[in-house]
Amino acid sequence: MDVKCEIAANTNVGRQRFRNEDNFIILEKFSLAIVADGMGGHVDGDVASRIVTETLNERYDSLYAEKVNDDDDQIKSQEQFLAESIECANFKIFEKNQGVFSLESMGTTVVGLQITPCGHSITACVGDSRIYRIRDEEIEQITEDHSLVGELLRHNIIHEKDLMFLQNKNIITRALGMGQNVTVDTKVHKLQNNDIFLLCTDGLSDLVENDPVLQIVLNSADLEETVANLIDAANDAGGSDNITVALVKVQCE
Questions:
Q1: H/E element holding 185?
Q2: CA-CA distance, 253 to 251, in Å (whole number)?
Q3: What is the CATH topology of the domain spanning 3-143+174-252?
Q4: What global pTM score does this model have?
Q5: Which helix (H) or strand (E) holds 110?
Q6: Domain boundaries along the sequence of the chain
Q7: pLDDT tens digit sequence for 15-40
Q8: How far is 203 from 208, CA to CA, in rounded Å?
């Protein structure tokens, strides 16, 4: 299978924050996009999210060729390398947190997506940033939130209609930097032609519902315009947080 992908991304401080604690990186050579949301309300969340992007950039540049096998197990080794790279970033953040008062408790979420040459997507997730897939004019969240709300929904303790009555909805149950080790959720999905993947921080997903997001994706001229329109939609809805959006579109032949 011949797989090509196009990637576009951008970030915006929003309308109510003075500092952007989000970071993203696109590694076109590896068909990889990473989005990280520094923990809002924690000191130096921007440092934590930057450690993620810098660590992923360094590891893919220096170790990818050595660690990823060019054989039948390539997908497995790619998935493992992505998870290990995020785990490495976690340890760096955790170490930086130790004994440095100005950096105590900094943390970050992360989502990552890699498109493989053999026709698969690999996703990685820690926290409540999200990855959606747009396929056949439908949108589906393909990562699970590591948040209080996400846990309650998964265990059928509450229903979506009850979310408006829930306090502390933004509590994160898993993030980078909170412990020496972290569990990274990874999944592999088979691609279809014209799949579009949306990676975003909760500055978008908390303010713009799925249907408007889908319509923006379907009706924008290209990926750059789509990214800009999604950020504008979040700001039009109040822009209460930093907003970061990455889009990946695949062509399979």
A1: strand 185-190
A2: 7
A3: Phosphatase 2c; domain 1 (3.60.40)
A4: 0.91
A5: strand 108-115
A6: 3-143+174-252
A7: 999 899 999 999 999 999 999 999 85
A8: 9
